[in-house]
Amino acid sequence: MVDGGAGNLNTTRKYALAAGALTLITSSSEEHDIFRIAERINPKRAFLFVSTLLGRHIPVDPLAHREALTELAAGVSSHLLQGPVFVMGFAETAVGIGAGVFDCLRLANPEREMGYLTTTRFSAVGSQDWFTIQESHSHAVDHIVLTPQPGVLQHGPDTTLVLVDDETTTGKTFSELALGLRKKSLQFGRIVLVTFTDWSDGRAEAALGGIFNGADVCSVSLQTGSWSWSAKLNREPSMLPVGYKPRQSPWFPDSKQVFGAPRMGITTSAIRQTGDQILSSLADAGLAPLSDKDRVLVVGAGEHVWQPMLAAEALSMRGIYTRFITTTRSPILKGETIRQKMTFPDHYGHGFWMYMHNVVPSEWDRILFFTETDATGLHKDLVAWLGQFEVIDGTGSVTVFSAAKKEA
């Protein structure tokens, strides 16, 4: 177990939320915490662990993000069996960190056969749905697993299955994915559960015990602890926002597009993509040079996380002040953790709301917005709020929007 804390302090934290009280016991001191607490707009679970390293709700230094991924991968490496490795992440939150853990593992273990696959909320053009699972407490319960491209799927009695999520509280989502793999007649010799924060107090490992005959289960995380929730009596639960009727036809990812989430998988046999390669292609597409005097915010949209993070990392490596964040489908209340919030209709034509948190557009000299869709699909409210920004779409084209930036 990798632990980012300072010894076994077993400190207790209590958080008073509108819907109830959350109590945490953790082995880290508060100064070493890698999370904040926010309140979900969700009747199934009222609280949310907001990672300070993830880049989903709080802009993050991409180099700090990479450091955390490297630490997790180092922990995983010590648990690997002698055979291949199969890494999986979860949409939408852990698509990027799953790819990141895989990336760090392949760099540290270049001789290994490895594959990475993620769940998704979208069926894709050029691929078939392989199976589905459900995440009971999520704002969007259905997870689709697409048929992996050749070379991605690794399995067998000497294969290590690595499941990556940002956090775990019960292990149920991990177990649902493992059960889905078992139904496909796959076998693994070991399962490694990987999270930034593990609040399951051993329940996650227990939830996966016995799913694959003979496979042992272990965990790697940066901070651990346990939780308990006390709901306020007679309080009506907050309901999920009602969707809207989209005006455009629904978008579906295409396996052939240049920029997009790795829904059909990544293999170690494929050439490893780098942030410098991405920036070079964007320069060829007309992206204006970025200066080391610029403050740059790189934004990924929804599941489109990994390539934007690589671009942000490359900018940081060039000495440019860069932060990385992604939009999300998760509805959260404003408060101490979520100080700014922008709500806008999705640009996928599927009728759900999207959010960007803790961003003030006027604080940034350049905003690079990566979307898998066409730039014209971005809602006018989002465009007006961001003001001056550049869109990189799924084809790799660059479109510049120019208007006065609005405050959050």
What's the alpha carbon Rg, rounded to whole Å? Answer: 20 Å
Count of beta strands: 20
The DSSP helix count reads: 7
The biggest beta sheet, please?
A: 9 strands, mixed
The rounded distance between the terminal residues' Cα atoms is 40 Å
What's the overall average pLDDT, rounded? Answer: 93
H-E order: EEEEHEHEEEEEHEHEEHEHEEEEHEE
> Helical proportion?
10-25%
Shape: globular
Tell me which oligomeric state these chains represent. Answer: single chain
Which features would summarize this protein structure in a list?
408 residues, nine-stranded mixed β-sheet, five-stranded mixed β-sheet, 20 strands, 29% strand, globular, disordered N terminus
Characterise this structure.
Helix content is 19%, strand content 29%. By secondary structure, it is of the alpha/beta class. The chain has a domain of 132 residues. Strands 1, 2, 5, 6, 9, 10, 11, 12 and 13 form a 9-stranded mixed sheet that branches. It has a 5-stranded mixed sheet with strand order 15-14-18-19-20, covered by helices on one side. Strand 18, helix 7 and strand 19 form a beta-alpha-beta unit. Helix 1 crosses helix 2 and helix 5 crosses helix 6. The longest helix is centred in the N-terminal third of the chain and has 16 residues. The protein is globular. The relative contact order is 0.16. The N terminus is likely disordered.
